């Protein structure tokens, strides 16, 4: 097996920390790397970028010391194949609610006869060995609805999954909880903890979209291993606000 940078980062079993990219940027991922983040996620579901944009950005990161993941809205094999051909270490498929949907996400990363991925790596460094190309890909099923909770054990048992990625905001909404209470409501927190336990019991990497450092710390204490802290826009806003406060002598 040829491990990806993400797989290497996860192998010690300690928490790893991620940034999030929602728009076209040449420097965002590199700045996350310089800040010491372990991985960066690219958002093709809610971001202002599509899989083609992300493939172009991924090509720039071949020699940058940061792992990469891409969130996609569904298990469509064409965009998944494009970002994998550009070197993405992982895919995160949104709104997975059943074992069948999780299996479809895995199949989109596998070549025939096991799956539906088309051959066409865009990086020479990836090589042409399909077994190695498949093995370096980590597939995360994103659990973010109440419907998925009922099928979580079967979902975690799907062969080929590397991890479960929790989306607290949509999970809260689907449970009838205000999105602003996604990380504080006891029922949502219990559901998040239950998903983490199911993932760990199945030998999968428990991952979560925390949104900020404080929540990220709490999620690490809860047992999550792969934790996204925030987007480039949030980091820019915080840095800009801090600089302005310094200039005005407000702190």
Task: Characterise the protein shown here.
By secondary structure, the protein is of the alpha/beta class. It has one domain: Alpha-Beta Barrel (TIM Barrel), CATH 3.20.20.60. Helices cover 42% and strands 17% of the residues. It is built from 12 helices and 8 strands. The protein has helices spanning 5-10, 28-34, 51-59, 77-85, 99-107, 130-135, 146-149, 152-156, 168-174, 186-201, 213-222, 232-248; strands spanning 16-21, 39-43, 67-72, 90-93, 138-143, 163-166, 205-209, 226-231. Helix 3 (51-59) packs parallel to helix 4 (77-85). The termini are far apart.
Largest beta sheet, briefly?
A: 8 strands, parallel, barrel
Radius of gyration computed on alpha carbons? 18 Å
Which CATH architecture?
Alpha-Beta Barrel
Helical content stands at 40-55%
Give the structural class.
alpha/beta
**Number of separate domains:** 1
Cα distance, first to last residue? 51 Å
Top-tier CATH class: Alpha Beta
Q: Tell me the strand percentage band.
A: 15-25%
